[in-house]
């Protein structure tokens, strides 16, 4: 059975006014008295009136909606950034529809089409494909921000963290604390050598005269894509089984680091005495686990806000020059590394 929605005609009949008067009340029009407006709005609320955005769109109005597509909704990173997105969107009079591509290009495309079909005014995309040109086929340039990872090119506005320097600082710290055999657990979404965190890792090795080893660069496969923590754990278990020697682990994100810590514990290795662990993202949970996680930090709430601010500028001036917004990164040292507490 289809749900019957309350219409302005129903409210007008209940109050005893014209449909035009009800419409003016919703628009806060000065032609009607405050008393009449209050009666209409109270009646609408009691009757459960829901505005028909589709009808507004058909009349050529904006939807008042922004669409956000996360690449991995299970990662708490997105909820933390999402707080900033929601806050800034609300300040600008927008509501946010959130979808999850689950690291799947086909699902990501469906998400994009669903949001466009619902006529969102703007789109925030945490993309899977690392080629900016891939997303140009949707003709999204005038209302879209690509967020999360840095892109080469200038087709879209891009908001991202300073991944290269964040990774460099993390790995350089590990080396300065006496670690020489540093494993990196990398993301399966990127081609080898293309992401900035990997480049920061290799640059830190080079600057400290440590030879890069393929054996110590682990890319998570499709081991357990939904539960990222398990991926980190499984990689450590296999490395120990294969007798690969390492004294530190730098992970693409904190979720993988949580799994690494679990895997090291179960393998009988002490943290940080035997192996130091460094993550990336500084999730709220990272300071609460045992041992607390050293990691690359940045202001995720602020990042979410800057994403929306960048999108608002694009919506106001669709043809303006594209903008690249880089979020500063640093490291926070805790108990999972030597020198931490």
Automatic annotation (TrEMBL):
> Which terms are listed as keywords in the entry?
DNA-binding, Transcription, Transcription regulation
MF term (GO), any: transcription cis-regulatory region binding
Question: Please, which domain of life does this record's source organism belong to?
Answer: Bacteria
Cross-referenced PROSITE patterns, in alphabetical order? HTH_LACI_2 (PS50932)
Q: Report whether Nucleus shows up as a keyword of the record.
A: no
Question: CDD domains, from UniProt?
Answer: HTH_LacI, PBP1_LacI_sugar_binding-like
Q: Which residues form the HTH lacI-type domain?
A: 6-60
- Transmembrane stretches, by residue range? none
One Pfam assignment: Peripla_BP_3
Report the protein name in the record. Answer: LacI family transcriptional regulator
């Amino acid at each position: 059975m289809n749900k019957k929605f309350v219409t302005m005609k129903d409210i007008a009949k209940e109050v005893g006014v014209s449909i035009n008067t009800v419409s003016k009340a919703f628009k806060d029009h000065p032609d009607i008295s405050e008393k009449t407006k209050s009666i209409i709005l109270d009646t609408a609320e009691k009757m459960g009136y829901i505005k028909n955005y589709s009808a507004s769109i058909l009349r050529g109005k904006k939807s008042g909606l922004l669409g956000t597509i996360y690449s991995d909704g299970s990662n708490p990173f997105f909820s933390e950034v999402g707080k900033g997105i929601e806050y800034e969107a609300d300040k600008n009079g927008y509501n946010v529809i959130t979808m999850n591509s689950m690291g799947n290009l086909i699902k990501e495309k469906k998400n994009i089409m669903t949001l466009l079909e619902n006529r969102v005014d703007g789109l925030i995309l945490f993309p899977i494909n690392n080629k900016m040109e891939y997303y140009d086929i949707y003709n999204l340039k005038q209302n879209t921000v690509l967020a999360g990872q840095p892109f080469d090119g200038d087709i879209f506005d891009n908001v991202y963290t300073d991944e290269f320097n964040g990774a460099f600082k993390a790995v350089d710290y590990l080396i300065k604390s006496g670690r020489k055999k540093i494993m990196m657990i990398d993301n399966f979404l990127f081609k080898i050598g293309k992401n900035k965190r990997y480049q920061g890792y290799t640059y830190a090795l080079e600057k400290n005269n440590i030879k890069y080893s393929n054996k110590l660069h682990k890319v998570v496969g499709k081991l357990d894509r939904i539960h990222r923590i398990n991926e980190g754990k499984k990689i450590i278990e296999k490395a120990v089984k294969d007798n690969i020697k390492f004294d530190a682990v730098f992970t693409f994100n904190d979720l993988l680091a949580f799994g690494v810590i679990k895997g090291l514990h179960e393998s009988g290795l002490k943290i940080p005495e035997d192996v130091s662990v460094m993550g990336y993202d500084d999730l709220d949970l990272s300071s609460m686990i045992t041992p607390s996680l050293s990691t690359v930090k940045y202001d995720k709430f602020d990042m979410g806000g800057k994403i929306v601010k960048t999108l608002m500028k694009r919506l106001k001036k669709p043809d303006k020059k594209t903008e690249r917004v880089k979020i500063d990164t640093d490291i926070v040292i805790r108990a999972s590394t030597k020198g931490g507490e």
